[in-house]
TrEMBL record:
Keywords of the record: Disulfide bond, Signal
Protein name (database record): Glucan endo-1,3-beta-glucosidase-like
Keyword Signal: yes
InterPro entries: X8 (IPR012946), X8_dom_prot (IPR044788)
Recorded GO CC terms: plasmodesma
Amino acid sequence: CVPKPDATVAQLQSNIDYVCSNGADCRPIQAGGACFEPNNVRSHAAFIMNAFYQTNGRNNFNCDFAHTGVITSTDPSNGSCKYLS
């Protein structure tokens, strides 16, 4: 589950805020975390949206995020940042 290309920064920040305020472990996208770099909203949202999708049943609706998410078959992990799968 990753952001759609046309999702705005404001929408993606809202997704991060929603997931992180509902008990998700958001430490990986915080300074010093394995997924902090690249330090931008789209990358952080991709990690958090995928974590939410993977830990909440992997249903299509768990990746909707008000029509800003899309399920991908490509693993977006990079370097030390490993996405749940």
